[in-house]
Amino acid sequence: MTEPLLSQPDLWRQLLALVLAATVVMGSPGPATISVTAVGAAFGLRHSLRYACGIIMGTIAVLVVVATGVVAVLASMPKLAPLLVVASAAYILYLAFKIATAPPLAARSGEASRPTWLAGFLLAVANPKAYVAIAAVFAGASSRQGGDIGIWLKLAVLALMIVAIHALWLVAGAAFARFLRRPAASRIINLVFAATLVLTTALAMFG
């Protein structure tokens, strides 16, 4: 008979270790987290929710791809990897340009300049750090002594961590939005976030 969940201390220790690893590795600055923060700062919380949802869904898709071993299949195609790197770098540079040139919040009108759900999803699936970080956390959880906590539980916990991590980065970025109604402050903060996005992407690809 299976023990109740609360009476399995080894399981709770493994879950805690998984959460801590996800917080440190997946929650650290990277293209997706920095982009969520930058979009939140440049466009405000309400107008960034669709983009953040796209980032979250795209990152969960990466989690599923890593867990099912699709990444290993793609890695066996040497000609495909450089194309994916170039495509992801081009898209992230485009997003950085949009953030850097975003006008102050008070001067905006219409929906055209706001990043969309699809934009967030595409950046997440093109984010090189996501594959490395999620693979490291997932493999680490699978290799610990004391039994495996199960793939479905790992997927559920990591999916919840993806939601929590990106929500926190979004709120942190949106906290800057009140400063962005002044043109000078808006330009400086947007340029800093755009440069940070490019830097974290370069580190993820070549670091």
End-to-end separation: 48 Å
Note the overall shape.
globular
Residue-averaged pLDDT: 75
User: Which structural category do the helix and sheet elements fall into?
Assistant: mainly alpha
Characterize the biggest β-sheet.
none
What percent of residues are in strands? under 5%
What is the count of β-strands? 0
Number of helices: 9
| Uncertain residue segments | none
Count of folded domains = 1
Radius of gyration, CA atoms, in whole angstroms: 19 Å
Q: What does this molecule look like?
A:
The structure is a single chain. The chain is an all-alpha fold and 207 residues long. Helices cover 72% and strands 0% of the residues. The protein is built from nine helices and no strands. It has one domain. The protein is globular and about 55 Å long. Helix 2 packs parallel to helix 5.
Short summary of the structure?
With 207 residues, the protein is mostly helical. The chain contains 9 helices and no strands.
Topology diagram in text:
Elements lengths: L8 H17 L5 H13 L5 H19 L2 H6 L4 H21 L16 H10 L1 H16 L7 H24 L8 H24 L1
Helix pairs in contact: 1-7, 1-8, 2-3, 2-5, 2-8, 2-9, 3-6, 3-7, 3-8, 5-9
Output the keywords.
207 residues, mainly alpha, 9 helices, 72% helix, 0% strand
